[in-house]
Amino acid sequence: MPTETIQQTRQAAMAVLVHAAADDIAARLSDLELPASMALREPENGLVMVRGRIGGDGSAFNLGEATVTRAAVRLASGECGFGYTLGRDRDKARLIALCDALIQTADYAATIEANVLAPLRAEQAAERQRKAEQTAATKVDFYTLVRGEG
Predict the structure, then answer these.
(1) Which of 59, 67, 97, 106 has its CA 20 to 30 A from that of 117?
(2) What are phi and psi of 29, to 5 degrees?
(3) Is 91 exposed, middle or buried (0-12, 13-18, 19+ CB in 10 A)?
(4) Checking phi first, is residue 45 left (phi over 0); if not, alpha (psi -120 to 50) or beta?
(5) Phi and psi at residue 52, in whole multiples of 5°?
(6) pLDDT value of position 142
(7) How far from 124 is each of 87, 110, 131, CA to CA, in Å?
(8) What are the φ/ψ torsions at residue 81 (nearest 5 degrees)?
(9) What is the pTM of this model?
(10) What is the C-alpha to C-alpha distance for residues 81 and 99, in angstroms, rounded to an integer?
């Protein structure tokens, strides 16, 4: 696979995994026979500075800090996966790292896409659609009536 394609695949997978619950990811991975892996970096919590922009020119400013958890995993075949998530969910960071490593392998990439990423992506799309419909139901249209006197 070309490098850009692998990078885009990993980015797309991370976009799905960070919005999924750790239990959902674990449940989908439990049905699969996974290769041996070792922790390169045990899950750990830390802080990142969140930056914002203000004004017409978009000047940056420090908005505040956010808690982030990160982990790194290496498969027996040598692929390394990295997982980051907002909050203090160590299991989720480890599972994301494992999925990241697995989608880099030729043997597991299609399996992870079909059994983990695609169902999670579909659930997230359905949830976004449900919220959009719920929001649309509360939409109020304001009309301005013009009288013919003026």
Answers:
(1) 67
(2) -75, -25
(3) middle
(4) beta
(5) -125, 175
(6) 78
(7) 19, 20, 11
(8) -125, 145
(9) 0.84
(10) 7
In angstroms, rounded to a whole number, what is the distance separating the alpha carbons of residues 73 and 108?
15
For residues 80 and 101, the answer to whether their CB atoms sit within 8 Å is yes
Which residues of the chain fall short of a pLDDT of 70? 1-4, 145, 148, 150
Show the DSSP H helices in 41-117 as ranges. Answer: 90-102, 109-112
103: exposed, middle or buried (Cβ count in 10 Å: 0-12, 13-18, 19+): buried
Which residue type does 98 have?
A: L
* Residue 150, pLDDT score: 57
Virtual torsion, Cα 101, 102, 105, 110, nearest 10 deg: -150
What is the number of other CB atoms lying within 10 angstroms of the CB of residue 35?
15
Asked whether 113 and 103 are in contact (CB, 8 A), the reply is yes
Which residues, including other chains, have CB under 8 Å from residue 107's CB and lie 6 or more apart? 35
CA distance 54 to 47: 23
